Automatic annotation (TrEMBL):
This is LARG2 glucuronyltransferase. It comes from Urocolius indicus (Red-faced mousebird). Its cofactor is Mn(2+). The gene is Large2. InterPro entries: Glyco_trans_8 (IPR002495), Nucleotide-diphossugar_trans (IPR029044), Xyl/GlcA_transferase (IPR051292). Bifunctional glycosyltransferase with both alpha-1,3-xylosyltransferase and beta-1,3-glucuronyltransferase activities involved in the maturation of alpha-dystroglycan (DAG1) by glycosylation leading to DAG1 binding to laminin G-like domain-containing extracellular proteins with high affinity and in a phosphorylated-O-mannosyl trisaccharide dependent manner. Elongates the glucuronyl-beta-1,4-xylose-beta disaccharide primer structure by adding repeating units [-3-Xylose-alpha-1,3-GlcA-beta-1-] to produce a heteropolysaccharide. Supports the maturation of DAG1 more effectively than LARGE1. Its main location: Golgi. It is found in: Golgi apparatus membrane. Residues 68-112 are annotated as: Disordered. In the C-terminal section; belongs to the glycosyltransferase 49 family. In the N-terminal section; belongs to the glycosyltransferase 8 family. One of its GO terms (biological process) is protein O-linked glycosylation via mannose. Pathway: Protein modification; protein glycosylation. It catalyses: 3-O-{(1->[3)-alpha-D-Xyl-(1->3)-beta-D-GlcA-(1->](n)-4)-beta-D-Xyl-(1->4)-Rib-ol-P-Rib-ol-P-3-beta-D-GalNAc-(1->3)-beta-D-GlcNAc-(1->4)-O-6-P-alpha-D-Man}-L-Thr-[protein] + UDP-alpha-D-glucuronate = 3-O-{beta-D-GlcA-(1->[3)-alpha-D-Xyl-(1->3)-beta-D-GlcA-(1->](n)-4)-beta-D-Xyl-(1->4)-Rib-ol-P-Rib-ol-P-3-beta-D-GalNAc-(1->3)-beta-D-GlcNAc-(1->4)-O-6-P-alpha-D-Man}-L-Thr-[protein] + UDP + H(+); 3-O-[beta-D-GlcA-(1->3)-beta-D-Xyl-(1->4)-Rib-ol-P-Rib-ol-P-3-beta-D-GalNAc-(1->3)-beta-D-GlcNAc-(1->4)-(O-6-P-alpha-D-Man)]-Thr-[protein] + UDP-alpha-D-xylose = 3-O-[alpha-D-Xyl-(1->3)-beta-D-GlcA-(1->4)-beta-D-Xyl-(1->4)-Rib-ol-P-Rib-ol-P-3-beta-D-GalNAc-(1->3)-beta-D-GlcNAc-(1->4)-(O-6-P-alpha-D-Man)]-Thr-[protein] + UDP + H(+); 3-O-{beta-D-GlcA-(1->[3)-alpha-D-Xyl-(1->3)-beta-D-GlcA-(1->](n)-4)-beta-D-Xyl-(1->4)-Rib-ol-P-Rib-ol-P-3-beta-D-GalNAc-(1->3)-beta-D-GlcNAc-(1->4)-O-6-P-alpha-D-Man}-L-Thr-[protein] + UDP-alpha-D-xylose = 3-O-{(1->[3)-alpha-D-Xyl-(1->3)-beta-D-GlcA-(1->](n+1)-4)-beta-D-Xyl-(1->4)-Rib-ol-P-Rib-ol-P-3-beta-D-GalNAc-(1->3)-beta-D-GlcNAc-(1->4)-O-6-P-alpha-D-Man}-L-Thr-[protein] + UDP + H(+).
């Protein structure tokens, strides 16, 4: 009898345990009122850790059920307890019988078993990007994707001409393995390129959104992207990923046969029409959907006649709405309102929207819930949000993250063919690591990332034939020279800045805070990202030179201030000397001061007076007179017309030449022979060297660079520089034959 009561007691305890576990499971799977925001549908499979926890809990419940069955068998012929007591048959039912039918989803359709994404499957991502600012934003987005990704990627960029140039150069120089990039001209999508009587694409749609006409481009993706592309993830540029994008790609496997678009519900009250009095938004299904993250099944959309569908909807709604307020998002929502079966509702952690008055806090309870963060407020990082500091820090992590670290191979997947990458790898393998000058040769082969036109720049549609651009390079420690140069030079400027990712953002803040720099739209800043131990001075010069927009360039260094009015003087000289009809290099005489504070001379007469008083000197007369002595400063003092000088060994003046002049030799890195070699090649190509009589520039003092210190202290450094000089002479001889022998003889003379 005692044993029987003990058995019944065990059964009672087991039943209570089962009840507690079932209650916990009920809460865990998201049956609370807002659970659908916090948890994926049962078959989503996008949170493997949570799915494993659910499976473990269900397994525990099944074990308790088995124990109950064993206890019942021990009771033998004991009478069945009354209904509702601890032995109720209701508790004897299996856990699966009491769960909601398997296959139910938050989209109201039976969802198939999710197909896992193979680690080598190519994922396609489409992004609309136009202008300088969006090109900067998209780099942060791409970094966040590359940081988490485990799959090959194909980025499809719909761009204007500015973003195309910037991003094409960036990705070509970035050379990330298993990443392919395609570009599509947004200008072709603004208006139709088909024959007459063909309707325009999106230019006919009035749009009040700050994104302008480019905010409508996502409507045209079925036509813009290749016809054999069946599906794509579409992203805004103000997105940050906090997980592997393959998890989002896997959601395509959950679409029903009728669903073609995956979207997250809008997290503000915009489409409810209650934000202010007389607020009349476009029609939407419930709260509407946000189009910052879209999953598109392109093949199905094409079969449905998507282009005609959205066009007819837009035409109908514009009759009363007159314009869109949220660009493509209004039209997407109007289409879905009429065809709700088309949409697959993504869990909202795939688009946590950080606009004002957002409900985004319901999308996450802990960091692991976050998948995609969307800065969809015009205020961007200054938006008001309870957890904005956390989101801002996550964004800044990728903003300042060293992009060089993302050049990692995807092991186990065949790399996409990349001839430039293969050639570089072969050249690196041919280097001799025992060579004492290995580091110099390795630096020469380093592939630096290049971000052209980092800030707003107004391109010259038709530059004048005598126009000239100041070309220079600098690093972070010379930023203070920028404002002074802009005050002295009114013409266009092309600068290459050697910065880390974090320093690039410091420079951005500096430039945006400067009234002097902010007032200029003809200064082009090109970021060359730091990598390696030497300063790649001639690479930087070539980047700035190649991206000048005028027929002529003034090749200078950032430590020099040009005389006031030099820009106009050079333009007049180019015309008067008929430079377009002759091959010539105009020399701007260089001087220097040892004083950080200088009353800058306003004329040649004032400069000569300061030269006589000892407050100015000819450049480097006391440490390297050979570099500028051939300018013949004595003749310059009294000259009134340009005069010709001959090349001499180690001559390195600052010159004005045509933009198509020879490029600098990039083997010379750090300090030494970087300008000498360039002037030597100008002479080999028979450029006239003409000194301008009324032009001058003054070098401002600064601390010695790290590279010049290495040159002075290291004999090995100097030996390697000599080896590079010898190799340069040999190359010069091969290109110019006997005419180049004089350089070799002159270089070896005492």
């Amino acid at each position: 009898m005692l044993r029987s009561w003990r058995t019944k007691l065990k059964l009672l305890l087991a039943t209570v345990t089962l009840a507690v576990l079932l209650s916990w499971l009920y809460l865990f799977v998201g049956s609370l009122e807002y659970g659908r925001f916090l948890l994926p549908p049962p078959c989503l499979g996008s949170q493997p850790a949570r799915a494993l926890e659910q499976e473990a809990l269900a397994s525990r419940v099944r074990r308790v059920e088995e124990e109950n069955q064993q206890l019942r068998s021990q009771l033998g012929q004991a009478p069945a307890p009354a209904e509702g007591s601890e032995g109720s048959p209701a508790w004897g039912a299996s856990a699966e019988d009491r769960d909601p039918p398997r296959g139910e989803s938050g989209n109201g359709t039976a969802c198939p078993r999710q197909r896992p994404v193979h680690k080598c499957e190519l994922l396609h991502v489409a992004i609309v990007c136009a202008g300088h600012n969006a090109s900067r934003d998209v780099v942060t987005l791409v970094k966040s994707i590359l940081f988490h990704r485990k799959n090959p990627l194909h980025f499809h960029f719909i761009t204007d001409s500015v973003a195309h140039q910037i991003l094409q150069t960036l990705f070509q120089s970035w050379m990330v393995p298993s990443v392919h990039v395609s570009f599509y001209n947004a200008d072709d999508l603004k208006a139709s390129t088909c024959p007459l009587h063909c309707p325009p694409e999106v230019s006919w749609i009035p749009n009040k959104h700050y994104s302008g006409i480019y905010g409508l481009m996502k409507l045209t993706l079925t036509k813009a992207l290749p016809p054999n592309l069946s599906k794509v993830i579409v992203l805004d540029t103000d997105i940050t990923f906090a997980t592997d994008i393959a998890e989002l790609w896997a959601v395509f496997g959950k679409f029903s046969d009728k669903q073609v678009i995956g979207l997250v519900e809008n997290q503000s009250d915009w489409y409810l029409g209650n934000l202010w009095k007389n607020h009349k938004p476009w029609p939407a299904l419930g709260r509407g959907f946000n189009t910052g993250v879209i999953l598109l099944l392109l093949d199905r959309l094409r079969r449905l006649g998507w282009e005609q569908m959205w066009r007819l909807t837009a035409e109908r709604e514009l009759m009363s709405m007159l314009s869109t307020s949220l660009a493509d998002q209004d039209i997407f929502n109007a289409v879905i309102k009429q065809n709700p079966a088309l949409v697959y509702r993504l869990p909202c952690f795939w688009n946590v929207q950080l606009s004002d008055h957002t409900r985004s806090e319901q999308c996450y309870t802990e960091v692991s819930d976050l998948k995609v963060i969307h800065w969809n407020s015009p205020k961007k990082l200054r938006v008001k949000n309870k957890h904005v500091e956390f989101f801002r820090n996550l964004y800044l992590t990728f903003l300042e993250y060293d992009g060089n670290l993302l050049r990692r191979e995807l092991f186990g997947c065949a790399s996409m063919p990349s001839p430039p990458s293969d050639q570089l790898q072969q050249a690196l393998e041919e280097l001799d690591e025992d060579d004492p000058c290995y580091d110099f040769r390795r630096q020469h082969l380093t592939q630096h990332r290049v971000h052209l036109f980092f800030l707003q720049y107004e391109f010259l549609a038709h530059p004048e034939p005598t126009d000239v651009t100041l070309v220079a390079q600098l690093s972070m420690d010379r930023l203070q020279m920028l404002e002074a140069i802009c005050r002295h030079w009114a013409g266009p400027i092309s600068l290459a800045l050697y910065l880390s990712d974090a320093e690039a953002q410091q420079f951005l803040r500096y430039a945006q805070a400067s009234e002097v720099l902010g007032a200029r739209r003809n200064v082009a800043y090109h970021i060359v990202y730091r990598e390696g131990q030497f300063y790649p001075i001639n690479l930087l010069r070539n980047v700035a030179l190649a991206n000048a927009q005028t027929p002529y360039v003034f090749l200078t260094d950032i430590d020099f201030l040009p005389m006031y009015g030099l820009y106009e003087y050079l333009r007049n000289s180019i015309q008067q000397l008929e430079l377009p009809q002759r091959k010539a290099a105009l020399i701007v005489p260089a001087f220097e001061t040892l004083h950080y504070r200088l009353t800058f001379p306003k004329s040649k007469a004032e400069l000569l007076s300061m030269l006589d008083m000892g407050s100015l000197y000819t450049f480097r007369y006391h440490v390297w007179p050979k570099g500028h002595a051939p300018t013949d400063y004595a003749q310059w003092r009294t000259a009134t017309v340009p005069y010709r000088v001959a090349w001499q060994p180690d001559f390195e003046p600052y010159v004005v030449v045509r933009r198509d002049c020879p490029r600098y030799d990039q083997r010379f890195v750090g300090f030494g022979w970087n300008k000498v070699s360039h002037i030597m090649e100008l002479d080999a190509q028979e450029y006239e060297l003409l000194v301008l009589p009324n032009a001058f520039m003054i070098h401002m003092p600064h601390a010695p660079s790290f590279d010049i210190s290495k040159f002075r202290l290291s004999a090995a450094y100097r030996r390697c520089l000599q080896a590079l000089r010898d190799e340069f002479h040999q190359d010069l001889s091969r290109r110019y034959g006997a005419a180049a022998l004089k350089y070799l003889t002159a270089d070896r003379s005492p």
